[in-house]
UniProtKB/TrEMBL annotation, chain A:
GO terms for biological process: lactate metabolic process. InterPro entries: 4Fe4S_Fe-S-bd, 4Fe4S_Fe_S_CS, FTHF_cligase-like_sf, Helical_ferredxn, LUD_dom, LutB, LutB/LldF, LutB_C. It comes from the Bacteria. It comes from Gracilibacillus oryzae. GO terms for molecular function: 4 iron, 4 sulfur cluster binding; metal ion binding. Keywords: 4Fe-4S, Electron transport, Iron, Iron-sulfur, Metal-binding, Repeat, Transport. PANTHER family: LACTATE UTILIZATION PROTEIN B. Is involved in L-lactate degradation and allows cells to grow with lactate as the sole carbon source. Has probably a role as an electron transporter during oxidation of L-lactate. This is Lactate utilization protein B. The gene is lutB. PROSITE patterns: 4FE4S_FER_1, 4FE4S_FER_2.
TrEMBL record, chain C:
SUPFAM superfamilies: NagB/RpiA/CoA transferase-like. It comes from the Bacteria. It comes from Gracilibacillus oryzae. This is Lactate utilization protein C. Residues 52-235 form the LUD domain. Belongs to the LutC/YkgG family. GO terms for biological process: lactate metabolic process. Is involved in L-lactate degradation and allows cells to grow with lactate as the sole carbon source.
Amino acid sequence: MPMHIGEKDFKKRVTKGIQDDFMRGAVRSAQERLQNRRAAAAEELGDWEEWRTLGQQIRSHTVEHLDYYLHQLSEKVAELGGHVFFAETGEEANEYIKQVVQEKNAKKIAKSKSMVTEEISMNEALEGIGCEVIETDLGEYILQIDDHDPPSHIVAPALHKNKEQIRDVFKERLDYLKTEKPEELALFAREKLREEFLTADIGITGCNFAVAESGSFALVTNEGNARMVTALPKTQITVMGMERIVPGWEELDIVVSLLTRAAVGQKLTSYITALTGPKQIDEADGPEEFHLVIVDNGRSKILGTEFQEALHCIRCAACINVCPVYRHVGGHAYGSIYPGPIGAVLSPLLSDYDEYKELPYASSLCGACTEVCPVKIPLHEQLIMHRRKIVEDEKKSTLAERIAMRGFEQIVHSANLYRTATRMAPFLTTPFAKNNVITKGPGPIRNWTDTRDLPRPTKERFRDWFKNREKQGGAV
Amino acid sequence: MIGNIQKGALKVKVSFFITCLGDIFYANAGKAAVELLERLGCEVEFPDAQTCCGQPAYNSGYHKETLEAAKHMIEVFEQSEYVVGISGSCVYMLHEYVHLFKDGSNWQKRAIALKEKTYEFSQFIVEILGIEDVGASYQAVATYHTSCHMTRLLGVKEAPFKLLENVKGLKMVDLPYRHDCCGFGGTFSVKMANISEQMVDEKISHIEETEANLLLGADGSCLMNIGGRITRQGKPVEVKHIAEILNSRGDE
Amino acid sequence: MKGKIINRERFLTNVSSKIGGLTPEKSIEKPEWTVNPQHNVLKDFTQDQLVDVLKEQCQHIHTDFFQTTSDRLKDTLNDVLAQYATKSFIYSADERFQTYHLDDFFQSSVNEKRAIMEWDPEDRETSVSFAEKADAGITFSDMTLAESGTIVLFNGKGQGRSVSLLPRDYIAIVPKSTIVPRMTQATQYIHELVKTGKNIASCVNFITGPSNSADIEMNLVVGVHGPIQAAYIIVEDK
Ligand code: SF4
């Protein structure tokens, strides 16, 4: 699955989202639960702001010295006998992974959840050489069974589906006979997937955080699938976005604590599994062979720019869970596997403005995202920076808007022009006014008045009132 | 003595910042705010050269254009002792000027000076004048819409509630999900009109749940958005700026 | 044998050029972070207070909590197995089972016709397939985090990864002295090992209760791929 998902046209995707009542119901209740749990977990600490500050410092230090830490990481992994492949593009990564798979003559691959492998369409690449790739995260599994329905959320990929829909998918595809009770659905998936774990030739995982000082990496899960994937198959491949790294274990503590609280309101998730190299000689379980694939795929374009902070993201989805735009349009409307505020910031950077030029505008700049981000990424400000780039560097705004803004500049700069313009307002709008409101506006106001009234400008502006009052002797 | 202000002592000089929407659409809110500030012992002036804070251009990515607005406003209020505005998000924009100029530049210094003396109306009354009861009375069951920019960015969370609590006759009802945005977002409301519509409708449904007959706010743009949708739908909820209530003495 | 590193130079040269042209080999000092809130959590709590925190936390993570003395440990274990209707279990190859005199317990389990097995690092096949079918897996905790209710296992050799993962239920024996306030103490311990050039376990597992998922409508379902039930037995140290 590539980064881009669904219908090409942004407006159509949005309309589809808004009309999907099932999805919106599911998203609304999920958001509410996740928001409450995150808020409770943050509050409980008492000094959440300090934790965020520390998280921000760790992430910005690491990204500022990314070359150093990646070098250290790769040295350590190799010392332990693991292999490291640096992939500048998704294709390079896929080629390497295919090569490993073919060398092992592997047919069945069990995979735990990973956004970066979605981003580079790894599954398709492997299926292309005849492999069976099995998603083992419950949410991902549901989507895979449902004809590869794209994920709509970075932590809970099937969040747009309700339990009845999931039951139907299982029924149709897997002859599931039980009810829509989540317990029964989960138990069914457990039984189905158990066999796959035991017989998979290769396990592929993503990476929540690599630890540079020891060449380790941590997987944060609740279901235990990542543990299965890393305990049972003989060969393991881990794919990481190049920025998913911390200097040492002490920093791992902080980012993991922030992640689990911000993502799901848990102090820690059920399993944090920190793996260091392939299994040791005297061990029975664990992989005999280990490959780490470090992926750039557009990330280095972001380094050194005003968007560098976007690389601090720890993929907790807290920003998505509070976003009102996401609530109403759903994840698929973003057209990217990275939806919500972080998706609106990241997608145009990893891809380009041609593909994602609308996303920076799909925000009311309410700042809810910025307020919750556990590593203090100023998300709404990054969206404004995108808009600035689109306007000033890319010159991609409409001519009408540019003319309007130039006019705006003239007017606000000059007190006289401004006074004239505001004095004209009541007269200019009179033809459109009904009672005390304007119900059908001209030009760009039209979009507003399609759904809302516009108040009619008062005959006496505030400034006229003030001046007259001063003339008449002023204040009481 | 009321709050920090001693009767008969030197008056606090306030330069009033009306904002474009206030000037054109909500003159009544501006009038009420001025009258109240005067009642509370301030000397209010209105620098007539003031224009727009530049926020529409800034948020749309037109930063060169914003710079011109910023410079103009910095000059207009250069001599002011305090600048008090009646719209949280516009006041925040005045604070934001600091980031428009080069670090350490002269313009940035002037922007910092402006930021340090600029307050939102309710914030000014509570934090600077030190008054929580302005002696108002008004009969209504009301709920209050928190503006995102005023609470999250400007950081004014409590002041309006403190003032409203003390209005005689006014019964305040909590607005559920009050932290949710009303869907205005400047050009967002016209560029992404259908999403904005969903957001404002959700907001109105929460307002209706309170069964209040009056919606209050301290941000002109949110009020224009919610109010415009309420009148379009013919809902029986009145929309007012808090200044109008705080200046009311039960005789209107 | 050292593993291969492929494509590194080109990749890192590009990265370096974007962030100010550092040479990746040049050592970087971590800055002093301005705040360190992690050290304040449960600071100065006594061991007994930490037990209380752990006990309370168990309620939030769907984990049964038991507390016992070293003498009574075998009885408590028997009670838990009876409660869970355990007919078979696997346990890690850990000296502490002897230290706590659990031979009696194993014997009584056999008498009660439970199928039991000690994890055998030499025989992967048998161990894994036994674990996969076992009702319960039993391990000692290597370190225990009070705040989150977490068992830390330094997996390797006798402490097989699968023991706490494949069986239906997971039972952790927690010597009271292994309890520390939070993850901070565990990661600090590992950091010290790394700093002094010592090996760390190939797999460190932080286990917090049974496995679960909220992927279906955000409803928490306990027991997905890993264990469905979990019990912690806190025991006074031997
Ligand atoms: S941007 Fe911040 S809040 Fe959003 S997913 Fe990333 S870390 Fe979480």
